[in-house]
Design a protein that fits this description.
By secondary structure, the chain is of the alpha/beta class. The chain has eight helices and seven strands, in the order βαβαβαβαβααβααβ.
């Protein structure tokens, strides 16, 4: 049975991935930080293992990885999805806000990768997937730090595909477009309609759209795909 760990799995895209991978027969573990009630409810519904973990904490990540490997014995796929957002002008950001975004997105992906990659190399198989954003590909006004974090994940994914490829470990990146999650809560309905109108497919994306792409890239159907940044954006960015 295939095994997967999804960081930041209690809400939004992460929750959709937990549900879909569970439905498809994978053994699933996921992390959460503050949404304990939602995480435990999701765990009960799906049978997935819920683990509290601060993505940017070296100690938390090491303890979480130990629990996952004790429960599953090995990990087939690691999905680094944990993230936070910041909307506002760059000059209004504090240094701590800037550092927090990079710590969660980039340091978090580094810590999780470092924790699970040795086991994949030892088994000569595995898949790592970083959840970036189309803003990491093109940049977004008033989301400079978020865009920079997501661009860093694309660079990390491409570099790790080369580094881990000789060990038969695949590394890819997903770049969602405008997806209906809590991160859109600051947008007005008028703004959301305008974003949908700018999308060639004339709608916003759903967490399930991203989850299906994640499942494909994690499966044997994608066994010759590595080092790619796949857009799931309805054609918003072409």
């Amino acid at each position: 049975m295939q095994t997967v760990l999804i960081t930041g799995g209690s809400r939004g895209i992460g929750e959709a991935m937990v549900r879909l991978f569970s439905e498809k027969g994978w053994r699933v573990a996921f992390t959460y930080l503050t949404s304990e009630e939602k995480a435990l409810a999701l765990s009960r519904e799906t049978g997935a293992l819920a683990l509290r973990c601060d993505a940017k904490s070296e100690g938390d990540t090491a303890a979480m990885a130990e629990k996952v490997l004790k429960q599953f014995s090995h990990l087939d796929t690691l999905i680094c999805n944990a993230g936070i957002s910041y909307t506002g002008l760059l000059q209004d950001m504090t240094v701590s806000q800037w550092d927090e975004l990079f710590a969660v997105h980039v340091r978090g992906a580094f810590l999780a990768t470092r924790a699970f990659l040795p086991g994949m190399i030892s088994r000569q198989r595995g898949s790592i997937l970083y959840i970036s954003s189309m803003w990491g590909q093109t940049g977004a006004s008033c989301e400079a730090a978020y865009s920079a974090c997501k661009a860093a994940l694309i660079g990390l994914g491409k570099a790790m595909a080369k580094e881990a490829g000789p060990s038969h470990v695949r590394v890819n990146v997903l770049c969602p477009g405008v997806i209906e999650t809590d991160m859109l809560r600051e947008y007005s309905q008028e703004d959301l309609r305008a974003l949908a109108d700018e999308t060639p497919l004339m709608r916003l994306g759903t967490p399930e759209d991203v989850a299906r792409a994640a499942l494909f890239l994690s499966s044997e159907s994608a066994s010759f795909i590595t080092g790619q940044a796949l857009g799931v954006n309805g054609g918003f960015l072409i």
